[in-house]
Amino acid sequence: MSLLHPHARFLIFTVFIIITSFSSETSCFGLHSRAYSTSRIVTIPSASPSTSPPNPKLVNVDAFGAKGDGGDDTQAFKKAWREACSSKDSVLVVPQNKSYHLKPVTFSGPCKSNFTFKVYGTIKASPRKSDYQKHKRQWLVFQNIQNFTVEGGGTINGNGKRWWNNSCKAVTFLNCNNLTVDNLRIKNAPQMHLTFQKCINIKASSLVVTAPGHSPNTDGIHVTETQNIHIQNCTIRTGDDCISIVGGSRNVEAMDITCGPGHGISIGSLGAGGSFDYVSNVMVNRAILTETTNGLRIKTWQGGSGYAKNITFQNVEMHNVRNPIIINQFYCDKKEPSCSEQASAVEISNIVYKNITGVSASKEAINFKCSKTFPCHEILLEDVNLARQEDENVKAACDSVKWTNQGNVSPSC
Asked: Which residue among 285, 337, 342, 348 is least enclosed by CB atoms within 10 Å?
């Protein structure tokens, strides 16, 4: 080394440091990977970035004939979509201070990568029932799209108060991959507000979802047949589940959720009509529920099969919530023989309730109604403290369940 020029020695030393640092970082990452693989933390791969590319192609719906004056803007939006979808690094813009009325419409891919839909103004469902004769189940559908972002701070108004008893889903993302939905207001859906179906790698954040507490079937965020989804910093006030996670879904994380009114945060229902269903690897962390009809609920039908497992609810505050913690393996939304116990049921196991506190509006703050043929098992209650107003007694009802308590648990099975 002494024969080398000083600059050469410095270069060799620098390369050595870089290689050593890289090796250290790789080893640390490997250690973290092994830790995560054995923990209950749900890790969600990153979805598409929520920022526009450096030099995007701007596509304004107004340039394609949209007026935002109460007339029908559906065709203009479809034309603008085709232009943006077929262009690389495009941004489809819905201008602010305007309200655009749309009939039921499907926006389809595949599109070129890095496609952003900026909603600054309001997109509103057509008020005419005749427009829904052929599309009674869905209003806005985005399907078969990858690397797609919807954001902008605008509003999507389902105009659902006109027909809540005869309704369709407001916004559906179907078969999408690497999707970000951020900073939007979605309100008054005819039925479910925001549905993710058969999607992979999703980020839904900073959403405000609202409908009157009496509006039927207006779930806030509905997750079905979807994997790797991260929901964060959302406020949901509706007439049904704030978040519902149903069959075929796994690796779901919901954090910093404000819920109520509504029916709480639900897994299921699962196993309807004797079907096989599953939900696994769910983490609900840091949620506030206020005056909801249920709190943290898992619901399955008798006669079905499958499983709901590896589910954690932690750091949840309850404010005057009925049924704060409930597992019901006898769920049934109508009176019929299928509500009674049958030979098969969806198996429920490895469920954790940790640091759940607050006020119960019902005397039974914990209700585990499990099947004798398929009892709920590996249920952990850790630091659960639920009370009633004015220090009234609460109780736990626990049927066919194998549970463990850790820390202070009240009420207890």
From this structure: 337
| Confidence bin at 43 (pLDDT 50/70/90) | low
Picking from 246, 249, 244, the residue whose alpha carbon sits closest to that of residue 270 is: 246
Verify whether residue 263 is a known catalytic residue: yes
**Which element (helix H / strand E) includes 17?**
helix 6-38
Helix (H) or strand (E) holding 77: helix 74-85
Q: Tell me the pLDDT tens digit for each residue of 363-393.
A: 999 999 999 999 999 999 999 999 998 778 8
Domains within the chain, CATH numbers bracketed: 60-410 (2.160.20.10)
CA dist., res. 240 & res. 216, Å (int):
7
- State pLDDT tens for residues 77-113: 999 999 999 999 999 999 999 999 999 999 999 998 7
Q: Which of 201, 196, 155, 198 is nearest to 178 (CA)?
A: 201
- Cα distance between residue 312 and residue 287, in whole Å: 12
Q: Give tens-digit pLDDT for 18-28.
A: 333 333 333 22
Q: Please, are residues 192 and 170 in contact by the beta-carbon 8 Å criterion?
A: yes
Task: Beginning with the edge strand found earlier in the chain, give each strand of the sheet holding 105-108 in spatial order.
Answer: 105-108, 138-143, 169-174, 194-197, 221-224, 243-245, 265-270, 296-300, 325-328, 364-369, 395-399
